[in-house]
Amino acid sequence: MTAYLEARPRPKPLRAVALLAAAMAVAFAVAVWRGSMASQSLQLIDSPSTADEAPRAAVQQRSSQQEPARAEASSSSGGIDGSSSSGGTDRSSEGSPADPFAAPTRLHGPQRKAGPLDPREWLQPYALERHTEYMDYLEGWEQAHGQNPQPAGELPQQQPVTFPTCQVWVNHQYRILFLRHAKTGSTSVLNWFGCEQGGSCAPLRRLDPSISAAKAERIFSDYFVFTSVRNPYTRAVSQYKHMRRTMPARPECAQLTSWEKFCAFPPSMGLACRHHPQCCVMKEGYVYIHLVGQARCMTTAKGGLAVDYVIWADRLDEEIGGLFAAINQRRPPGVPELPVPRPEEVPKFNVAARCEEESRRQTESYSWGDQTYVTLAPAESERHCELREYFGPKHPQCLAQLNHFMQADLRLLMGGPILNSSGSSSAAVGSLAGSSSSGEEGMDRR
Predict the structure, then answer these.
(1) Which residue intervals are annotated with compositional bias (Low complexity) in the record (predicted)?
(2) How is the beta sheet containing 309-312 ordered, strand by strand?
């Protein structure tokens, strides 16, 4: 081997330089392409898909090992245990419904904000990093399981990063920020601030993610920050039903998705759109934005809460008065009082049908722009009237799988997972240690 290497002709210096330059040019082109993909990730969400488009949507979330750390640190700001230091309220024992999977979250009302939202979750300089890490995550899963695999009993790997970004909406006049999570009534909340049909006429707009981290920190410090949250189990069922409802009512499309497949790996619905774009009204990225966790998008880099106020998604009409009173109390001098919207006049979107009505439907419909599509209704085996049925004996793997996948949200919002379909919860709820009055002490999430 040594003789062989010594006998090989060595490249001339100019040729070596040329080869190096060519390699650098290729690397630069790849980096530019990936950066373009990351910057266009929102465009992959907001427009319908076509048969010849199977975009690789960007996605991301911090490593799964850091999810518990984040929720633990959040307990120090009152986020999990509802302690009085946060100014929040623990409503876990107040009027809980018979179905524990539909219980309200423990976070509610005023909170003590610990700092700004983690810049790595939404600012533009981190977009390429998030995109790359999520693509690797999806490709690793596909390499291990193939395309459109049958549901398996293994636990799904948690999302490593946030995709494509946490959504931060702003109104500078009233100095308010809304941290928007998909499938938490967020579109209805945006309508509260609109200028039509009963809104308060203080429109919210996306906050520019290209601002510096220092400017973002100042805005989070000076502005009133609120969010709407939802029981993660309720939200998971809503996520699945909504994304299935964006798939055309064709037999070949119905085979791509099921509640069991969703439980086994929720992003698999996005991968189905990648490989079968004719079966998705919306593009691949539309799925991933609906899977972004709530916990990541309402906490600081050290795990404290990044919000001043939390409302319940399932009781929006009851929440309006308290939220707007808090906003008006904090409004800048000289700014007129914000009128409280009239909930009976403000449009609501994606409101679930009653169980009896849903069970009779053979197809659903999904509208985008001026087009309406005939889409998939829930399968016969998935038409349940109680949420607990989605996690019961008919779907034996789903509870353990989604408990693992949604670990951070369950710890922050509910105090821990439900361990069985009868509603027994974790014995570790409320036992998190390392609390402090500021919510910023403890371990970093990276």
Answers:
(1) 74-96, 423-439
(2) 109-110, 309-312, 224-229, 176-180, 167-171, 205-206
Q: Is residue 288 part of a domain?
A: yes
Contact criterion met (CB below 8 Å) for 308 and 298: no
Q: State how far the Cα of 166 lies from the Cα of 283, in Å rounded to an integer.
A: 19
Least confident stretch, 2-16, 87-101, 416-430: 2-16
Size of the chain in residues = 446
pLDDT at 342: 83
Cα–Cα distance, 280 to 282 (Å, whole number): 5
Parent domain of 223: 58-239+283-335+395-414
Cβ atoms of 222 and 229 closer than 8 Å: no
User: In the structure encoding, which two tokens stand for residue 321, read together?
Assistant: 């008065």
Whole-model pTM: value is: 0.77
Please name which of 435, 404, 409 lies closest in space to residue 419, comparing C-alpha atoms.
404
The answer to whether the beta carbons of residues 321 and 329 sit under 8 Å apart is no
Question: Tell me: the pLDDT tens digits for 44-69?
Answer: 444 454 433 333 233 333 333 344 33
C-alpha distance across the termini of the chain, in Å: 45
Residue 377 within a domain:
no
Distance of alpha carbon 105 from alpha carbon 125, whole angstroms:
33
Indicate whether 432 pLDDT > 80: no
Strand 371-376 relative to strand 363-368: parallel, antiparallel, unpaired? antiparallel
In a domain, 212, yes or no: yes
- Considering the domain boundaries, does residue 118 fall inside one? yes
Number of domains in the chain: 1
Residue 387 near residue 237 (C-beta atoms within 8 A): yes
Q: Cα separation of 138 and 369, whole Å?
A: 30
pLDDT at 150: 75
For residues 300-318, give the mean pLDDT.
96
| Dihedral of alpha carbons 72, 78, 81, 84, sign | positive
**How many other CB atoms sit within 10 Å of the CB of residue 22?**
10
Calpha distance 15→420 (Å, rounded): 67
